[in-house]
Design goal:
alpha+beta; Topoisomerase II, domain 5; Gyrase A, domain 2; Topoisomerase, domain 3; 4 domains; 4-stranded mixed sheet; 17 helices; 41 strands
Length: 808
């Protein structure tokens, strides 16, 4: 035997590199094409091989694991079973690929049952990974002992690398890809097909962020942008917490959704340890009330504790706030590579083009083979009698086949097909079917040839397949995206639209597009715009743009900032989100009025009015610097409350109205501008009544007044003469038991529409032109049909141009 001297350093280097590449390619890093690691690919292929389909009976997990180990994956059964279990966990996979029956673990970290107890079958979506695998769409390779063939990659129709994400640690590198929403991914790929020059930033309009199976929140956009543009980034995740009121002035924090991959049991243990160590002192009790209907971890707070403060402490010290380090590393042409969002989608598109071309080539070959046989059958029908006589006279099938080939010039395939043809095919009807089959096959051949000759047709097929995936498997996004207040480019990813913002007396807020509320005629019953909790009523509704700021003025004279798009967009029966979760209201403080602001400009003012008739004017620029804790807007007298605020230019006239139906019109110049920390001056003497609102009056408009019993009227602005500041005003509407006291009023034109809202949460939208003009000293007409115990609580104005009356 010839000996060879080898440098030990070189041998170690090359051997270790071989080992490292084996780990990277063969175990830890997913393939860019089907987005799977070898173990997951082999599990799905083994289940496919066993016909363990979504619409067939379950099989024992041990059966699947045994097939995977024995045929394709020569590693430990525990590793294979762990991979199989994860494919079935709804809290690990955004779209599970395995349908499991039995105990597959929980979000508390409970282990799954042994593989001899659990049963599995493929999920319906998993079939999209294996569709057309029998049409020579992918290459096969020998398994580890050369006894079988296994696919090198699956012909996945689904962009799986981003769909369910992936994580793995190889030698010297790691991958950590978050899951995404299927509908958003497929839509983004469709847009990239239509516009190949789309940038990552433009793609983010369709794929805005990851979508985790455990929902919760993504906090901030900068990390998402960095990850999508460079392939690496840090995404901040936060749990979903709500504040609930309890008896005895107590409050509780309820956790209903956790950041991705957070263990709930260990989280609650950590919170309990922090309470014992007195690092968090405001929590009195911790309970896990989770059940089959969902997660519910309850943190009871001590009396007088501010929920927002405790919430921030929990974010700081526990996994209620987590980061996801994105590393979009995948195997591309047998090499590990970090890719950005656009590169991943382009690689998937190129893979799908290859699959479709190979499938079309296979189907073309099959169609040509079928056409060739049908040509022989068609020719045989033309010489049927002679052909039957020849076959009957032949000594054996091989002799008959040979004679057919010599006499009629049939090919081997054609002659064999004729010999195997049943006698029933010789009937007239069956002969017609052969001819029809032949014509259809020729049409298929022509179509396949067109596809192979036209890249645009291939793109159309991809587009259609993606749409089929959206239609069959698409669902709503689970993880909500919240912009960080330090980032000012969030609006780049948010469509600007007019929305109706609804607020309840208990402080629950939500938004809905204006198109949701259909126009009805005066006197209609309306539709539900907002659900309410027991003993809660809806009090406020107004319109704004999703890009607007909201200045939230409280009854105590403080002001907070909020972006409209940060308000949750929820269904009509939803109660919305507690305002205390959005702004840190102080004790005994409640929202008085909300002022939408598109941008802050000098030369503009905020005009405020209180319940006792005090008015105040302050420059809008004084409110231009947001502070999380809010700032003072006006000093309030004992027993008084702030009720209204409006933006003016310093040259407007104010219209004030009391609950008793009296009103006063004064010029803004009679009120000098003062700083934020001041009281204001008397605008109207309300006597024993109280002020219900304030408006900036316009000469070409009219005043629409609404009462508790659903009555209203319009009066021309010209009927209200200017008065001095501090007067008792003139009668604007006669108050009777029939119509009830004034609820509110708005300034309108004939082109406007109004939305009235009741304390039972019903809304009605009516054209202003349908409300007749009346004089000041009238009771008005019925605008809304109310139940006996129901009353109107607010109204808002919607411009007709804001809504194309969708849904009519």
């Amino acid at each position: 035997m010839v000996q060879k001297n080898i440098n030990i350093e070189d041998e170690v280097k090359y051997s270790y590199l071989d080992y490292a590449m084996s780990v990277i390619i063969g175990r830890a890093i997913p393939d860019i094409r089907d987005g799977l690691k070898p173990v997951h690919r082999r599990i799905l292929f083994a289940m496919h091989d066993l016909n363990n389909d979504f619409n067939k009976p379950y099989k024992k997990s041990a059966r699947i694991v045994g097939d995977v180990i024995g045929k394709y994956h020569p590693h430990g059964d525990v590793a294979v079973y762990d991979a199989l279990v994860r494919l079935a966990q709804s809290f690990s996979m955004r779209y599970p690929l395995v349908d499991g029956q039995g105990n597959f673990g929980s979000v508390d970290g409970d282990p799954p049952a042994a593989m001899r107890y659990t049963e599995v079958r493929m999920a319906r979506l998993a079939h999209e990974f294996l569709q057309d695998i029998d049409k020579e769409t992918v290459n096969f390779q020998p398994n580890y002992d050369n006894s079988l063939l296994e696919p090198m990659v699956l012909p996945a129709r689904v962009p799986s690398l981003l769909l369910n994400g992936s994580s793995g640690i190889a030698v010297g590198m790691a991958t950590n890809i978050p899951p995404h929403n299927l509908g958003e991914l497929c839509t983004g790929i469709q847009k990239l097909l239509d516009q190949p020059d789309l940038t990552v930033r433009e793609l983010m309009r369709y794929i805005p962020a990851p979508d985790f199976p455990t929902a919760a929140f993504i906090y901030g956009y900068e990390g998402i942008r960095e990850a999508y543009e460079t392939g690496r980034g840090i995404i901040k995740m936060r749990a979903r917490m709500e504040v609930e009121e309890t008896s005895g002035r107590r409050q509780r924090l309820v956790v209903t959704e956790l950041p991705y991959q957070v263990n709930k049991a260990r989280l609650l243990e950590k919170i309990a340890d922090l309470v014992k160590e007195k690092r968090i002192s405001g929590i009195q009790d911790i309970r896990d009330e989770s059940d089959r209907d969902g997660m519910r971890a309850v943190l009871e707070l001590k009396v007088g504790e501010i929920p927002k403060v405790i919430e921030n402490q929990l974010y700081k010290y526990t996994q209620l706030e987590m980061t996801f380090g994105v590393i979009m590393l995948a195997v591309v042409n047998n090499k590990p590579q970090v890719l950005n969002l656009r590169e991943i989608l382009l690689n998937f598109l190129e893979f799908r083009r290859t699959i479709i071309v190979r499938r079309t080539q296979f189907e073309l070959r099959q169609a040509e083979k079928r056409a060739h046989i049908l040509e022989g059958l068609k020719k045989a029908l033309d010489h049927l009698d002679e052909l039957i006589q020849l076959i009957r006279a032949a000594e054996s099938p091989p002799v008959a086949k040979q004679q057919l080939m010599l006499r009629f010039a049939f090919s081997d395939l054609q002659a064999q097909a004729i010999l195997e043809m049943r006698l029933q095919r010789l009937t007239g009807l069956e002969q017609d079917k052969i001819l029809e089959d032949y014509r259809n096959t020729l049409a298929n051949i022509e179509y396949h040839q067109q596809v192979l000759a036209s890249p645009s047709l291939v793109n159309e097929i991809i587009h259609k397949e993606l749409q089929e995936l959206i239609d069959q498997y698409g669902d709503e996004r689970r993880t909500q995206i919240i912009g960080d207040t330090t980032e000012m480019t969030i609006e780049d990813l948010i469509t600007e639209e007019e929305v109706v913002v609804t607020l309840s007396l208990a402080g629950y807020i939500k938004r809905k597009p204006t198109a949701f509320y259909r126009s009805q005629r005066r006197g209609g019953k309306g539709r539900t715009g907002m659900g309410t909790r027991e003993k809660d009523v809806v009090t406020t509704v107004f319109t704004a743009s999703t890009h607007d700021y909201l200045l939230l003025f409280t009854n105590q004279g403080r002001v907070y900032w909020l972006k409209v798009h940060e308000i949750p967009d929820q269904g009509p029966a939803s109660v919305g989100k507690a305002l205390v979760n959005l702004i840190p209201l102080q004790d005994q403080e409640r929202l008085a009025t909300i002022l939408p602001v598109k941008n802050f400009q000098s030369g503009q003012y905020v005009m405020m009015a209180t319940k006792q008739g005090v008015v105040k004017k302050t420059s809008l620029m004084a409110f231009s610097n947001p502070r999380p804790s809010g700032i003072w807007a006006i000093v309030i007298d004992q027993g008084d409350e702030l009720i209204s605020a409006r933006i003016t230019d310093g040259e407007q006239q104010l219209f004030l109205m009391s609950r008793a139906g009296k009103s006063v019109r004064i010029h803004e110049q009679l009120i000098r501008s003062t700083g934020r920390v001041s009281r204001g001056v008397r605008g109207m003497d309300v006597d024993e009544s109280e002020l219900v609102g304030m408006e900036i009056i316009g000469e070409q408009q009219s005043i629409l007044v609404v009462t508790e019993r659903g009555f209203g009227k319009r009066t021309s602005n010209a009927q209200y003469r200017p008065q001095g500041r501090g007067g008792k005003g003139v009668i604007n509407l006669r108050i009777t038991e029939r119509n009830g006291p004034v609820v509110n009023f708005r300034q309108v034109t004939d082109e406007d529409q109004v939305i009235l809202i009741t304390d039972k949460g019903r809304l009605i939208r009516t054209n202003v032109a349908e409300v007749s003009m009346k004089g000041r000293l009238t009771q008005g007409v019925k605008l809304m049909d109310l139940d006996e115990d129901e009353k109107v609580v607010d109204l808002t104005v919607v411009m007709e141009s804001e809504d194309a009356e969708e849904g009519e």
